[in-house]
From TrEMBL:
<protein>
    <submittedName>
        <fullName>S8 family serine peptidase</fullName>
    </submittedName>
</protein>
<dbReference type="InterPro" id="IPR034213">
    <property type="entry name" value="S8_Vpr-like"/>
</dbReference>
<dbReference type="Pfam" id="PF02225">
    <property type="entry name" value="PA"/>
</dbReference>
<dbReference type="InterPro" id="IPR022398">
    <property type="entry name" value="Peptidase_S8_His-AS"/>
</dbReference>
<dbReference type="Pfam" id="PF05922">
    <property type="entry name" value="Inhibitor_I9"/>
</dbReference>
<feature type="signal peptide">
    <location>
        <begin position="1"/>
        <end position="34"/>
    </location>
</feature>
<feature type="region of interest" description="Disordered">
    <location>
        <begin position="987"/>
        <end position="1019"/>
    </location>
</feature>
<dbReference type="Pfam" id="PF00395">
    <property type="entry name" value="SLH"/>
</dbReference>
<dbReference type="InterPro" id="IPR001119">
    <property type="entry name" value="SLH_dom"/>
</dbReference>
<dbReference type="InterPro" id="IPR003137">
    <property type="entry name" value="PA_domain"/>
</dbReference>
<feature type="active site" description="Charge relay system">
    <location>
        <position position="633"/>
    </location>
</feature>
<dbReference type="InterPro" id="IPR046450">
    <property type="entry name" value="PA_dom_sf"/>
</dbReference>
<feature type="active site" description="Charge relay system">
    <location>
        <position position="224"/>
    </location>
</feature>
<feature type="active site" description="Charge relay system">
    <location>
        <position position="269"/>
    </location>
</feature>
<dbReference type="Pfam" id="PF00082">
    <property type="entry name" value="Peptidase_S8"/>
</dbReference>
<feature type="domain" description="SLH">
    <location>
        <begin position="1239"/>
        <end position="1297"/>
    </location>
</feature>
<dbReference type="InterPro" id="IPR015500">
    <property type="entry name" value="Peptidase_S8_subtilisin-rel"/>
</dbReference>
Length: 1427
């Protein structure tokens, strides 16, 4: 076997220049050549040549990297001198974002996005362009949903434009289309003489109407081809002088394009869409009318597409969105898009997102490319917009008839062929379904009319009384049927064929092959049009028989074809509710496998209004101005109508009295998605989430739900330097992205239940996996075993692991976690979170998990080009990686070039080359596919000077540059490389010097990072031992250097977003302690401020991670799980204070105690608009804090106290000896306060004979246990249920309750009322229905139940390898206590007694005070809360 050498040819002179390593396969041996000339000798690379190669490759395959936007879009040829129209986006946020930000508390965004700032920046941009001599013409200025301009400019001036201050992106003014009616699509429908009720009933619209909701007063904007606003079924919905805006022609008349001649079509798409939403069913002269989903709503038209094919530019799309937002639309419908443009951050997608941020619901068709390749990732833009409601198309109920017929081909009286068939009758003229009499037992002459186009029928001659034989292909099935009816044919037969095409792609005939994959059987449901006044009886013939029949006709001169129909036609009804095959599939191209579409709605064979163009022809008839169309364009307006119905109910709800409706656009999306109905294919298999989203909408459920289930999904926008900024959004689905099962770590996603009602709501929560879902029909694969994924919900009610309760008009957050088993096979797993509440609609939220190293299946040769950092600072280095998705690549070269690369002939700086050279055969072989990693890339690059590979070095100037990767498969003709590129920024400013991070514990690992600006203090060494003492054993610590400022005696620390990301990357999906360590001798107080964006980012850390803030001998660890309690838009501030003045409070309430050292105060707040609110915590969200006492203490004789509401309480504390005679005090509890170390003497006269004396004395000295008097403890006395609840609450340091208990025998004035309420909230006690029996003695088995709940709350891991102990009196155990007794026995906290030679637990015996002292002491030691 030949040995393979992977060669990395490095352009460098010294070792300090650049080091590259490639990590592919352990089977490969690596040889690094510094000068051996085995690298391919390619023509010299200049910047101009490189740019041309990049441009050519991008035009062929699109961008290989979607992770962040470049300033200049990939599809702009900046070598050209032609004038082109481009959209220039500037850095400030548009005004719509500012208005939303002000409501949500995003103060920085609100200040940035005021219209004055937007206008000022645009004026400055134009002035800068003028000063630089850049000639451009401003065509349009945007300020509402996009801060930018449409300009006309020479393409080769665009790089200069990109260098102007504030420019963040330049995109070509793209051409967009009305989502077209698919050819030969699945079209179904049941005839109705008035209006087609079936799609409306399918989504529950009729139920909404019965409840009185019609969309009245809701403004609906249709952004499309305009509309025929004089149509009788539309005119009353738009009966006003202002009807909208025509961005296509830039006027105020958004009318459809009128046909330019009798034989040329006009536009019609917008009229059809509008009728689906607002049709008023008012046409007085037609037997047909159109009833819209929200027929009471008000229609506004925004014409952005024009011509018969419904095309328009991105500038026109954006202008239409802008105008709709300015006009105050409640909901906008965009049945348009570009399947080739998949970027979720394209200008039009940004405009859609910003319209939503302005409070407008945006509904977008998901696209009609599902039947094309690729199947997945077939959706485009703007359906990819994160905040849009993207809609898939579903089928509706349909009807067809079975039949039989015989076809004969004869010449004179000689029969050449006879075919016996049983085709389905799939379309007919409305009300003419008596086929037994109209066709039964009749024989008719048949004529082959090719593809059934109008020209084909013209060439076929008179078809009166004849049967038209038609091949499937090229035009829509409906159009073939209508053309046949117009020809006066008696019937039509369409067989499952296809066209043949010439070299230019034009149809030039019929493909009559004997076999055509997928087209040998009948067309099936794709052909089932149903009834319409424009149709005639049409049959669906299998393709194989149809082609054979036509071959016989064409090869038999002078032949006659006759069709004999059978005598019976049997009716067959289908329920529909399947996803249309043409409906585009997700996932979203957002690098996270985001779920799109969001929801499904009827979109197949939808009857609605079409234009008759009567604006200037008042006598024109609208009797037949109705037609059927199919596509997601037809599905989207159904959802738009449903939003209008919901708006009818909730638009005016303003419980906050802030002048804005309580329901956000994301809430409307959630209401429809949560209550939708999951649908299945014809075989009963559940559709995958990338096909149907959450399911098919049902407004009957959405109108009744009092609550919403949402995922707290981060939304990313971009600042002036293209740095990502995260904002919190509310999504109707959640993607876990890719999970690596080898890590054996759970990935957690935050969710929230939002109560929109005035009542307390409780739901039972569960996770439902989808064991079998659909896949790509072209490459079907089974669903992987869902049992390999463990899903769990956390943060539910403390008293239940299944119930979540939320108070009125509030939200309750909880989490969904996924843990993949080590053996989980690669694949896509999915399921949904299900919430059920009696009397309310069920709520569900879909989720998806990808297992294994995955990438967007874009079929690019080079994929996932990523950088460890977007900036090279000074002489610092970054890492680069790229994945080879091919087995044919022989040579890869990486260049570093400036962003323009135009018209320059100097050589291009080179990072390095990779090739696989076989030294024995002296030939280049393919580089193995896989991931290549390049480390230690600095701003010092090789510069090849000649063919001898002499190398010089060069440094890049400050500014924006590109890494360009070229990959060649053919070295004999290296002209067509695959490309990938990534922008990076060069700064000559070095990263400030950093102090190394603290050493991690012996069993952990860690690393240090720096970033940010301002003062960069060294990490105080005095805090290092303190930090190490509270880092969990085995967990890594990662240090983040903070910038600090002083105001008076208060020190404030902040950290950079990039440093947080580096810390998360260093943790590698494992739990970690992220440490911020600061200190000054001048400060008496310190605080760490985290922005809301940073809080959202930190929520992505692995479960069990913490953010540790250390200052001047004190530290507090904030668990990232607690960040789910931070409200939308709020910052997080944690503060530590030396609080010497509080010593007097402790001394006053504990006069016999002496305070040791200085008390410390710890607090955590959420901050919105300058208003601080204490962080709300659940009992499980334990904060660990530690501080140093400047003396040694006896741990068994020392305790800790804390102040809450001016009262002093004891709290468990762990004391650890530190260096220099000091002591570290560690306190863990779910709360914040001022803490002090204290000592006192306790001497009980009655415990000497007690078997639990040491436990009693220990807890008493720690303030945790009191006597029945100063000198007596009464060890043999029984303990009541109220007393033990109080002891347990005190021992765990739980926070005070937020509400009273539900127990009628616990009164507010009782001494134990507060403790019982705390215990109930924490889930430690449940009571007996509505009673607690506080004064009853607590039995031993009841004691085990409370203790078990306490252990699980902490939590404490039960010791392994235990031998099960059996009790002789086990039959006396209560069913509720059996597991708890065993748990306590295994944990060693309780045991039995020997009686009569057998071990008994005595479950009903009361618990004594001495027994409780022993149990509590053991519990606190086991949980490491005390020494």
């Amino acid at each position: 076997m030949r040995k393979t050498n992977l060669n990395l040819f490095i352009h460098k002179k010294t070792a300090s220049l650049l080091t590259i390593t490639a990590l592919l396969s352990s089977l490969l041996s690596q040889s690094i050549y510094a000068s051996e000339p085995t690298a391919p000798i390619l023509p010299g690379m200049t910047k101009a040549k490189l740019h041309a190669l990049i441009q050519e490759a991008q035009n062929k395959q699109g961008s290989a990297d979607k992770s962040s936007p470049s300033i200049i879009a990939d599809d702009i040829n900046t070598n050209s001198t032609e004038l082109i129209n481009v959209i220039v986006q500037l850095s400030n946020q548009p005004a719509a974002v500012g208005r939303y930000a002000a409501k949500m508390g995003y103060r920085t965004l609100a200040a940035e996005a005021i219209e004055a700032n937007v206008q000022s920046e645009q004026s400055s941009f134009l002035s800068s362009a003028s000063r630089k001599g850049i000639n451009l013409q401003v065509l349009h200025q945007y300020n509402t949903v996009l801060n930018g301009l449409e300009v006309s400019i020479q393409a080769n001036d665009i790089p200069k434009l990109a260098q102007l201050p504030g420019v963040t992106s330049i995109h070509q003014n793209q051409v967009y289309y009305a989502i077209p009616v698919p050819m030969d699509v699945e079209t179904q429908g049941i005839d109705n003489p008035i209006f087609d009720i079936n799609p409306l009933k399918q989504i529950g619209a009729d139920i909404a109407w019965d409840k009185g909701f019609t969309g009245a007063g809701v403004k609906v904007g249709v952004i499309d081809t305009g509309g025929d606003y004089v149509h009788p079924d539309l005119k009353d919905a738009i009966d006003r002088d202002y009807k909208g805006y025509d961005a296509y022609n830039q006027d105020k008349d958004p009318y459809e394009d009128v046909p330019p001649a009798w034989d040329k079509p006009g536009s019609s798409h917008g009229t059809h869409v509008s009728g689906t939403i607002v049709g008023r069913f008012a046409n007085p002269t037609s037997e047909f009318v159109q009833k819209g989903v929200a027929y009471g709503s008000d229609l506004y038209l925004y014409k952005v597409l024009g011509g018969a094919h419904g095309t328009g530019s991105s500038a026109q799309i954006i202008a239409g969105i802008e105008k709709a937002v300015e006009d105050g639309m409640d909901v906008i419908n965009l049945s348009l898009g570009s399947s080739a443009y998949k970027d979720p951050n394209s200008p039009d997608s940004i405009a859609v997102n910003n319209a939503v941020l302005a409070g407008v619901v945006a509904v977008v068709a998901n696209g009609n490319d599902g039947a094309s390749l690729p199947y997945y990732y077939s959706m485009g833009s703007p359906a990819s917009a994160h905040l849009a409601i993207s809609v898939a198309a579903a089928t509706s109920p349909s009807r067809h008839y079975t039949s039989s017929l015989e076809s004969t081909v004869s010449v004179s009286s000689v029969t050449y062929a006879t075919y016996h068939l049983n085709p389905s009758l799939v379309s007919w003229r409305t009300d003419e379904t008596q086929f037994d009499s109209s066709l039964g037992n009749q024989t008719m002459e048949a004529v082959f009319v090719g593809l059934g186009r109008q020209v084909d029928f013209e060439q076929a001659g008179d078809l009166t009384g004849k049967v038209a034989i038609i091949s499937r292909g090229v035009i829509a099935f409906e159009e073939k049927v209508v053309n046949a009816a117009r020809s006066n044919a008696a019937a039509a037969i369409v067989f499952n064929g296809n066209a043949s095409f010439d070299i230019s792609g034009d149809p030039n005939g019929i493909d009559l092959s004997e076999e055509i994959p997928g087209r040998d059987g009948p067309i099936g449901t794709l052909s089932r049009l149903g009834g319409d006044h424009k149709f005639l009886p049409t049959f669906d013939m299998p393709g194989k028989e149809g082609r054979a029949l036509v071959r016989t006709i064409l090869t038999t001169p002078y032949s006659t074809l006759k069709i004999s129909f059978g005598s019976t036609f049997n009716q067959v009804d289908l329920i529909g509710d399947t996803v249309a095959d043409f409906s585009s599939r997700g996932p979203n191209s957002d690098n996270n496998y985001g779920i799109k579409p969001d929801i499904s709605a009827p979109g197949v064979n939808i009857r609605s209004t079409i234009p008759a163009y009567g604006k200037d022809k008042p006598d024109i008839s609208y009797d037949e101005a109705y037609g059927r169309m199919s596509g997601t364009s037809m599905a989207a307006p159904h959802i738009t109508g449903l939003v209008a119905l919901l708006k009818d109910k909730y638009k005016d709800v303003d419980k906050n009295n802030d002048g804005m409706e309580d329901w956000s656009p994301m809430d409307y999306r959630a209401a429809l998605a949560n209550t939708s109905e999951m649908i299945r294919d014809a075989d009963g298999t559940l559709y995958d989430v990338y096909s149907q989203g959450a399911g098919r909408a049902n407004i009957a459920n959405a109108l009744e739900t009092p609550a919403l289930l949402e995922a707290i999904d981060p939304l990313t926008i971009y600042n002036s330097k293209l740095d990502p900024i995260s904002m919190e959004s509310s999504a109707s689905s959640v993607s876990f992205g890719v999970i690596d099962p080898k890590l054996n770590k759970a990935v957690t996603k935050p969710l929230q239940l939002k109560n929109m009602s005035d009542n307390v709501l409780s739901y039972t929560a569960s996770v439902v996996m989808h064991p079998s879902v659909t896949s790509d029909p072209n490459k079907p694969i089974p669903t992987p075993d869902v049992n390999q994924i463990s899903m769990s919900l956390d943060g539910l009610d403390a008293n239940s692991d299944q119930v979540i309760t939320v108070v009125p008009n509030a939200q309750q957050r909880f989490t969904l976690s996924a843990l993949a088993s080590a053996n989980a096979p690669n694949g896509v797993y999915e399921g949904h979170v299900l919430l059920k509440s009696a009397g309310h609609p069920d709520l569900h939220l879909p989720f998806v998990i990808h297992i294994g190293e995955g990438s967007d299946n874009n079929q690019f040769v080079l994929q996932n080009l990523t950088l460890s950092d977007q900036t090279i600072n000074g002489d610092e280095s970054i890492d680069l990686s790229v994945t080879i998705n091919s087995d044919t690549q022989k040579y890869i070269v990486i260049y570093a070039t400036d962003i323009e690369g135009i018209g320059e002939n100097e050589p291009v700086p080179t990072v390095g080359e990779i090739f696989n050279f076989d030294t024995e055969a002296h030939m280049y072989r393919a580089i193995p596919r896989g991931k290549l990693n390049f480390h230690d890339i600095r701003n010092s690059f090789g510069l090849t000077l000649d063919s001898e590979l002499n190398v010089n070095t060069t440094r890049l100037a400050d500014g924006l540059h590109n890494f360009v990767v070229l990959s060649y498969s053919d070295l004999t003709n290296p002209v067509d490389p695959s490309t990938a590129f990534k922008s990076f920024y060069v700064s000559s400013e070095p990263v400030p010097t950093q102090t190394p991070p603290p050493s991690p514990p012996a069993s952990g690992g860690g690393g240090g990072y720096g970033g940010g600006g301002g003062a960069r203090p060294e990490e105080p060494k005095e805090n290092l031992e303190l930090i190490q003492s509270i880092v969990p054993q085995g967990q890594a610590s990662v240090s983040v250097i903070a910038s600090t400022t002083m105001q008076g005696k208060q020190l404030t620390a902040i950290v950079a977003d990039s440093d947080i990301q580096k810390a998360l990357d260093a943790a590698k999906s494992a739990p970690a302690s992220i440490v911020v360590n600061v200190g000054t001798t001048d400060s008496s107080e310190a605080q760490l401020k985290l922005t809301n964006a940073q809080v959202l980012k930190l929520q992505q850390a692995a479960e069990g991670s913490t953010v540790m803030f250390a200052w001047n001998g004190a530290t507090i660890a904030s668990p990232v799980s607690a960040f789910t309690s931070v409200p939308i838009g709020a910052d997080y501030v944690v503060r530590i204070t030396r609080d010497a003045s509080s010593a007097s409070i402790f001394a006053k309430q504990y006069p016999d105690a002496s305070v040791v050292g200085t008390p410390y105060a710890f607090e955590a707040n959420t901050v919105v608009g300058g208003t601080a609110t204490p962080l709300s915590l659940a009992a499980k969200q334990v904060f660990k804090r530690a501080f140093i006492v400047d003396q040694e203490v006896n741990a068994s004789k020392t305790g800790a106290l804390y102040i809450e509401n001016d009262q002093v309480y004891p709290v468990p504390a762990l004391f650890t000896a530190a260096g220099a005679g000091k002591t570290i005090v560690t306190i863990s509890r779910p709360g914040f306060s001022t803490y002090a170390v204290a000592q006192h003497q306790t001497a009980f006269a009655d415990i000497d004979s007690s078997w639990a004396k040491s436990h009693i004395q220990l807890l008493a000295d720690k303030f945790l246990l009191s006597g029945t008097s100063v000198r007596t403890f009464s060890p043999k006395n029984n303990v009541t249920r109220a007393e033990f609840a109080s002891l347990l609450v005190r021992s765990l340091g739980l926070q005070k309750p937020t509400s009273a208990t539900p127990f009628k025998d616990v009164l507010s004035g009782d001494w134990y009322a507060q403790s019982v309420a705390i215990a109930y909230e924490a889930g430690l006690v449940t009571g007996y229905g509505d009673t607690f029996e506080p004064n009853a003695s607590i039995s031993r088995q009841d004691l085990t139940v409370m203790l078990t709940r306490a252990l699980k709350l902490l939590p404490v891991v039960k010791p392994a390898g235990l031998v099960t102990i059996s009790y002789a009196d086990a039959e006396q155990f209560g069913d509720y206590a059996k597991d708890s007794i065993q748990y306590m026995t295994d944990a060693g906290l309780m045991d039995g007694v020997e009686l009569s030679g057998s071990l008994r637990f005595q479950p009903s015996e009361p618990s004594t005070r001495e027994a409780v002292a022993k149990v509590l002491s053991s519990l606190l030691k086991l949980s490491k809360l005390i020494n």
